[in-house]
């Protein structure tokens, strides 16, 4: 007798293919949900594979446009950057996919949501907290936290053996057992030989970005326009214009990848307390982040910018930790959007062999005043106007250093 319907977040890879078979063995009816997030995937082949394994239904939904407009664009607007390096490509995709999972579960009267996230990673938190926020009554089946499952499968090599015994074709082999997660914003690599932080990533690891030794020897120029912190147009040196979110992002991925933009190799702090080594490719996200940061400093009031940066750090943590739909996440996004109302203008850039260089910027609402800062023109601001400010700061510094000297006096 069936134990009920489960909607499985299915990728067609090793973990979720084996989990699909395992759930069927536990007498669940399994509906596989696949989100088209821009990954290089043969969705029809994945559908056939899931059906052959035993899925009662396979739902494939194109979320690319939604992903860019409702998740990536707000992240660019906020300048999100976890631990000063990671552009949150996987973290942003999880709440987007979770919406699709919940919609599918409600449509097909499923009682459970299941996923293939490991018990040591962040995705289990992101999927589950997002699902609970969207549907508080949902029940989660997380195989990598179930003793029966983890006793049987000690690691990826056990999964490979299980797949072979059940005639499940998988793209992972013992020779190259790293894990890859791809979407429109990035590809992440972890596990296998990458678990040793001192191991150099293999040259054949990367899929989105060109090796710098093979990147073009000529720089490429482009301009990006923003309105209230959101990208609205990309103009290239060969007069191409892109003004729709998905086509803008797709183009920047293509040209950025060609020039080797957006590779990072980092050790980060996971939500559950472990440190993790990850290798990432984020070409379009990196280009947009550099452009937006430059325009933001140009347009925003100094103190507003500093407050916004503090909020950016908080929101980066929220998104990384799975709190996209939390009250605090929603509140901070609204605060940042308010600050970004004046971040409007254009940034001229050049990309070359992994580098993104800002060449200039323009805005109709910038606080920059060329006449006031000019060293060659007379303006309302005179060098003598700085005297009072310097005197105040000088008194502060003198008192600070006098205090330091007093602390060194030996009172014995």
Furnish the topology, listing elements before pairings.
Layout: E1 5-9, H1 14-25, E2 29-36, H2 43-53, E3 57-62, H3 64-78, H4 89-107, E4 112-114, H5 123-134, E5 139-141, H6 147-152, H7 156-165, E6 179-182, E7 187-190, E8 220-227, E9 230-236, E10 241-242, H8 245-258, E11 263-269, E12 275-281, H9 283-299, H10 302-320, H11 327-339, E13 345-352, E14 355-362, H12 370-373, H13 387-407
Parallel strand pairs: 1-2, 1-4, 2-3, 4-5
Antiparallel strand pairs: 6-7, 7-12, 8-9, 8-13, 9-10, 11-12, 13-14
Helix pairs in contact: 1-7, 3-4, 4-5, 8-9, 10-11
Structural class by sheet pairing and helices: alpha/beta
Shape from CA axes?
elongated
Cα-based radius of gyration, to the nearest Å:
25 Å
Number of helices: 13
**Within the largest sheet, what's the order of strands?**
3-2-1-4-5
The percent range for strand residues is 15-25%
Mean pLDDT: 92
The percentage helix is 40-55%
- Termini gap: 85 Å
User: H/E series, N to C?
Assistant: EHEHEHHEHEHHEEEEEHEEHHHEEHH
The low-confidence parts are: none
Question: What is the tally of beta strands?
Answer: 14
Main β sheet profile: 5 strands, parallel
């Amino acid at each position: 007798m069936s134990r009920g319907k489960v909607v499985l977040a299915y990728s067609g890879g090793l973990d979720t293919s084996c989990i699909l078979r395992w759930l069927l063995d536990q007498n669940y009816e399994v509906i596989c949900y696949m989100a088209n997030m821009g990954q290089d995937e043969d969705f029809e082949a994945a559908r056939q594979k899931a059906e052959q394994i035993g899925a009662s239904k396979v739902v494939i939904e194109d979320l690319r446009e939604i992903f860019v407009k409702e998740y990536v664009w707000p992240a660019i607007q906020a300048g999100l950057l976890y631990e000063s390096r990671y552009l949150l490509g996987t973290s942003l995709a999880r709440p987007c996919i979770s919406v699709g999972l919940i919609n599918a579960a409600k449509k097909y009267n499923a009682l459970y949501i299941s996923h293939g996230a490991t018990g040591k990673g962040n995705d289990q938190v992101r999927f589950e907290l997002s699902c609970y926020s969207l549907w508080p009554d949902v029940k989660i089946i997380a195989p990598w936290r179930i003793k029966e499952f983890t006793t049987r499968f000690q690691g990826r090599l056990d999964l490979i053996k299980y797949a072979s015994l059940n005639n499940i074709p998988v793209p992972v082999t013992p020779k190259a057992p790293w894990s890859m997660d791809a979407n429109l914003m990035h590809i992440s690599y972890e596990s296998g030989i990458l678990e040793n932080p001192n191991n150099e990533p293999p040259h054949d690891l990367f899929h989105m970005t060109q090796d710098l030794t093979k990147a073009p020897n000529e720089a490429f120029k482009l301009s990006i326009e923003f309105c209230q912190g959101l990208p609205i147009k990309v103009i290239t040196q060969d007069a191409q214009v892109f003004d729709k979110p998905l086509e803008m992002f797709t183009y920047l991925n293509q040209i950025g990848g060609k020039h080797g933009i957006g590779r990072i190799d980092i050790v980060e702090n996971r939500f559950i307390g472990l440190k993790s080594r990850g290798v990432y490719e984020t070409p379009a996200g990196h280009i947009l982040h550099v452009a937006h940061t430059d325009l933001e400093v140009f347009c925003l009031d100094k103190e507003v910018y500093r407050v916004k940066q503090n909020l950016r750090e908080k929101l980066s943590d929220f998104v990384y930790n799975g709190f996209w739909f939390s009250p605090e996440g929603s509140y901070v996004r609204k605060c940042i959007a308010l600050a970004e109302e004046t971040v409007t203008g254009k940034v001229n850039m050049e990309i070359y062999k992994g580098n993104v260089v800002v060449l200039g910027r323009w805005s109709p609402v910038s606080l920059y005043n060329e006449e006031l800062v000019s060293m060659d023109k007379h303006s309302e601001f005179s060098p003598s106007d700085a005297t009072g400010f310097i005197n105040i700061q000088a008194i502060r510094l003198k008192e600070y250093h006098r205090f330091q000297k007093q602390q060194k006096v030996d009172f014995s």
